[in-house]
Structure formats: C-alpha cells, structure tokens
Amino acid sequence: MVTRRQLIATASGIGSVGFLGYLLSRDDGTSDPPLPPETNGTPRPTQTPAGTESGPDDGGDDDFANREDVVDVREHGAVGDGQTDDSGAITAAIRAAEPGETVYIPETEDSYLLSYDGTGEETAIKLGTESDLRGITVAGETAAAGAQTLRVEPGSYDTSAPNWILKLNAAQRLENLTFRNLTIDGSRPSRDRAAALGGEDAMTGVLLRRGSAGGGHSLTFENCIVQNCSASAMRFEESGVTCRNVTARRAGRHGFNPVAGDTAVDPGFVGESIRSVDNGGTGIDHRRGTARLENVYTENNRSGNKWKHHVRRLEVRNHHSVRDHNRGWRSNHTGTDDTPEVQQIVFRNILVEQPQISGIRVSGDDTAIACDFHNIEVRQTDVQNARAGVVFSRDVHTQEATEGRIVVVGTDNGGGIFVGSDAVLNIGTFDHYQNEEGPFIAESGELNFENIENVDPGRNVFGTPGAAAVGAFSGASN
C-alpha cells in the first residue's frame, strides 16, 4: 500500500536513493581525546541507556514510520550512508510536516551527510520563513550518542565565510518545535585552533537568528549533542529556548551562547542538564536577557563561563566546573548600551575546581549587581591577575542575612576571598584551608560571616553533578 508520505515523496521528484548522490570526497582523520561515542561510522548501539526517552522506537521502526502522523526522511530521499548529501532531503521532510507531526530520522550505521557548495554563507538545514513549524518534532529513532548523526562533509564549505548546520530564522514564532535524539557534527578540522585565537570561525552548529518575531518562541532541544563546530555549537538570539539533556563540545568558540535581548519569554533561555566541554571560547556565554541553568557540568573550556553587562538575570544552580581555563564564572562588562540598573545574579550549589585565574569573579562596573551567593566551593585555584579564589568588587551586594556557606581551599598566589570597593558579601559559614595569602582580603569592601573555620570539609560538599550525570542521554532531565 502506498502511504500518503510516499505520494509526497514521489510528487516532489525525490527518489529513495538520495536526490544529489554527492559522494564524500575525503575524511580529515580527526583524532580526539576519549569522549562518549559519536559519529563517522559509529557501530549501532546495542541498548538504550536507562532513564532516557526512547523516542520513536517504542513500537519498532516499521510501526512508527508508517503512522499517518509521521514524516520519514527516507521518503524524501535521505539515505544515511555517509556518502549521499542528505541536506535537501532532511530539510524537505521537515518543511513537509504539518502541525502535530513527527519527522522521523532512523538510526543508521553511517551518518546523514550534509554537504556544501563552498560558496560561503550556506545553511544545510534552513527553516523558518518557508515553513509552518507549529507542533513539529524532529526525532532520531534511538536515544543514544551517534545513533543518528547529521555530519558536515569535511572540506565542503568555505572556511573564510560563516556557514550553519541548522539555522532557524525567527520571522515568525516557533511554537512547540522540538529536536530530539540527534548528534550534530560540524567536522571541525583536526588542526583548527580556537576561533578566538585566529582559528577557523566558519561553521556554527545551531543558530536561532533574530527576526521580526521578536522572541517568545517555544523551541526545545532534548538529548542532542552538538560537536566539532569551528564557531559556536549553539547560539540563540531570541527568547524561548530550552536545552534539556544537551551536550556541546569541541566548538571553536562557545558551547552555549544565549543572546536574547527580548523579554517576551522569561527566562529567555533554560538549560536543564547541560554539559559543555573542550570548547575554544566559553562553555556558556550569556550575553543578553535572562537565563536559568540547572544541573550543569563544564570542563576544559578555554575561556571558562561568563555573563555580559547587558544580562538582566542569570540563575545558576548545581554547577560543577572543572579546569575551565579562565574562571568558573565571571562578569564581563564591556559597553554601556542597554544595560540594566541592577543585574540579578543567582549562584547556588556551585563547585569550581582547578580554574586558571580564579574561581568566581562578580564585578559591577557600570551596573550594580544584586547577587544571591549561596553554597559555593572553590578548589585548587592558581590565581593569576586576581586577588583571590572568589572575587567580589565594584558595587556588588548579597542579601542582608548572613546565610549559606562558602568553601575555598588551596588558592595559590592569593587569598580565599577578596571583597573590593563598594562590595558587600554576607555569608553564614566560611571554610578556608591552605590559601596562600590568608582566608580573606577585605581592604575596601565589607565581608560579614557568622562562622569561620580553618578546615577542609572535603570535596564537593554541595553534591554538584559529575560529567556522566548530565548532558545528552544522561537521563537527568526534570
């Protein structure tokens, strides 16, 4: 029996063997540090991790693919053999979907290849103005890393111009649009340096481009990995984006880059169970608007994690930062346009270990910061160009009550806490141990506490998540 979807595919003139038949010309042979399984011929996973969403495979491949509310990318020409260019077929399948339908991407032994013409400013999968995306789910068959991978053909794009893998143009509000169970791979060249250090800055993984919609989207990514992009992994320029169980890794710039200046949805960006590792810029670079992050793991990001002067509110709960080469978190206040009079910053249950400069720096500069600073642990800090493991300065104030706890252990070349001009830090208990210049430096600021102990209470006293507990396919979403 010919299904409705087969009729659509036939009418569009797209055959089942792929509509361009573009062959993979070369592979860069990238060798990366050991990480969870990924692309380029990854063997089919033998089982789905416990606790993850099983996605479309509940009723079996054939049963699900033949449902009337399912658009199978194969019926639009996608092959998934690692050689055929599947860009147009996947785009056509998503555009053909109607509200309430699921675009189904079956698991494959090889990747779905995304090829470019090399002309610059190209997009493999472009959605928005051409599509009614209300209530659409784009879902891989299996909830496992590398089971269904969308991979850029190495060397097919112009490295001197920007390009994108998935680009969403916000000419209209994206309502209940979900991407699930996908690995998106930018095939970043193995010798590429970090983009901020003069490396390649040509391939962004996912971009929500600012448009006439003005924010207010309901766009969700669940159980997705975005990796090996020479620019940022994920950049969101309008509000209304949720990343749940998402991993960004090995980007040339930032892992997660929320830049929503609008407040149509508050918080503008939500990150629940996210992991950002080995990126050439920041793990998380929050530049505008509001964001709520919960259950976060970051590691080995060249520029740590930061927020900008234009941010109105940032809430971070349960974050574990390991070897982030700048700071676990820092304010980065440059420019004075469109800045709030008072920023709202919440840090609760944070562990920063082995940062390069200092653990956390909160500095107001041209705007005041109201900071909820509760249960913070900083360990083994090799302080450079900073005064302490934790730095508060320039018009930063915590709540009046002395509550919560701060633990600072093993600061080299500095003190445990520095409180600078016009800053007030109130805490309940302060545990310090082996900080080279003493427990605190409060030359021109105000530090108040109920209890102070010269003791190491043990690592991770607040129970922040490890690398395996969050991110794609971890099953840690709520």
TrEMBL record:
Protein name, entry field: Pectate lyase superfamily protein domain-containing protein
Skewed-composition ranges (Polar residues): 39-51
Coiled-coil region list: none
Organism: Haloarcula onubensis
Highest rank taxon of the organism: Archaea
InterPro entries linked: Pectin_lyas_fold, Pectin_lyase_fold/virulence
Region described as Disordered: 25-65
